[in-house]
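Why do we care about 3D structure at all? Because function follows from shape, and shape follows, mostly, from sequence. That is the central idea of this module. The next example makes it concrete: a single protein chain, its amino acid sequence, and then its structure expressed as tokens.
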Amino acid sequence: MTMLLSVLIVAICYLLFLYYNQKSLLENYRRTALDVISFV
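And the structure:
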């Protein structure tokens, strides 16, 4: 039971990590797009 719980916690942490990375990637992409638009 405790092992299942720890696996669940690790999985949740991993998903949160992926989610925040994806958010920052989207933010960087948007900023780059804005830079390109302002350059054009």
